[in-house]
């Protein structure tokens, strides 16, 4: 079914969203990757022009809200190298297996992500793709394929499956075909989409891939980030360590972001609102863990924070019936079982596919899904 909204309201760093608490900028991070210097720059943007927090999104991007000087914030974001294209900034939505090339997986997908980002920016027709369309690149962990992005690839030991709306098309690609195929499919969508913003809204998929027959079941949805001490085992990074830190409700204080940046290691923001600090030697990882653990970041895989999330809610969002983040924090329980996502209205922003979605009614919560 086609969405009725005719304009693309997804925010970027230049086209900000007017939220109840001020201007909100969203910075796309293809594959979730950023350098320590870039995270430090975003922390400064949040401290100097925003609400002093960074929000991690369900697509592995970062938001700054409550911005008082939009031009200065955009300049600082561009100066950090996080705004490489003014025309395509909102369509660089690429989620990738966050540990790829470092731990496990069937392929190192990082070059594909970089190549895909460059190819998207080089195709003028993709400027009209829309900020909701996204790409997934799964290295075989089966972590991001279950997010049901619009188009993606999933690396198996003997080749790469092309996915549409999270389902296997049956088509297998060589490594050298991945980027071009994803861009071709996205361009076909951008030029034939009508009023649809997502592949799942199309009545037929023939326009994207003639003769396609989708597999019956999508990949299972993952809701938990990798946390704690993660031994890296892939060629070139053996013996190194990645630290996985979940960020409660995705709200990262700028001060804590500065601590993370001070480690001066490569960083990955995951679609489960967590940060990976990568390529550490064991001694540095040990010290970093001791410094970061008291800061509110979560390194314990049994933490109840891993089973709860929330949309923005009040006071940041005018649509909300409640301060859903505060309510989610109050409702933490040790053995929650299924993931619970608290939302302030029926739009249910950021809802994981495999979660109990709880809708604020103004008088408590009811189950939306
Ligand atoms: S779900 Fe509703 S209340 Fe929550 S952020 Fe989205 S629009 Fe706002």
From TrEMBL:
GO molecular function: 4 iron, 4 sulfur cluster binding; metal ion binding; oxidoreductase activity
Residue intervals of the Nitrite/Sulfite reductase ferredoxin-like domain: 24-73
UniProt KW keywords: 4Fe-4S, Heme, Iron, Iron-sulfur, Metal-binding, Oxidoreductase
Domain of life: Bacteria
Full protein name: Precorrin-3B synthase
Annotated source species: Mycobacterium scrofulaceum
């Amino acid at each position: 079914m086609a969405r009725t909204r005719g304009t693309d309201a997804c925010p970027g760093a230049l086209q900000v969203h007017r939220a109840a608490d001020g201007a909100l900028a969203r910075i796309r991070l293809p594959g979730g990757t950023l350098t320590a210097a870039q995270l430090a720059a975003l922390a400064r943007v949040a401290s100097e022009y925003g609400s002093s927090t960074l929000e991690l999104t369900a697509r592995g991007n970062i938001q700054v809200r409550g911005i008082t000087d939009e031009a200065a914030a955009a300049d600082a974001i561009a100066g950090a190298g996080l705004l490489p294209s003014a025309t395509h900034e909102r369509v660089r939505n690429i989620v990738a297996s966050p540990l790829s090339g470092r731990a496990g997986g069937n392929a190192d997908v990082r070059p594909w992500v970089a190549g895909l980002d460059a190819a998207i920016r080089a195709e003028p027709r993709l400027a009209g793709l829309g900020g909701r369309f996204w790409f997934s690149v799964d290295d075989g962990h089966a972590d991001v394929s279950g997010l049901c992005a619009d188009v993606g690839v999933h690396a198996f030991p003997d080749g790469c499956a092309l996915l549409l709306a999270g389902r296997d098309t049956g088509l297998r690609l060589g490594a050298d075909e991945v980027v071009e195929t994803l861009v071709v499919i996205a361009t076909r969508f951008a030029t034939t989409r009508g009023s649809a913003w997502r592949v799942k809204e199309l009545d037929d998929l023939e326009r994207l891939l003639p003769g396609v027959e989708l597999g019956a079941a999508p990949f299972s949805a993952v809701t938990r980030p990798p946390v704690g001490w993660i031994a890296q085992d892939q060629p070139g990074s053996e013996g190194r360590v990645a630290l996985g830190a979940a960020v409660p409700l995705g709200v990262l204080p700028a001060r804590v972001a500065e601590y993370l940046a001070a480690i001066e290691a490569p960083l990955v923001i995951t679609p489960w609102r967590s940060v990976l600090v990568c390529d550490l030697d064991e001694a540095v990882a040990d010290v970093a863990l001791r410094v970061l653990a008291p800061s509110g970041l979560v390194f314990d895989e049994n933490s109840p924070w891993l089973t709860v999330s929330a949309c923005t809610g009040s006071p940041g969002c005018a649509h909300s019936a409640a301060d859903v983040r505060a309510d989610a924090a109050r409702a933490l329980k040790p053995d929650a079982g299924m993931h619970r996502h608290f939302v302030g209205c029926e739009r249910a922003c950021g809802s994981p596919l495999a979660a109990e979605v709880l809708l604020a009614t103004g008088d408590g919560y009811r189950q939306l899904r």
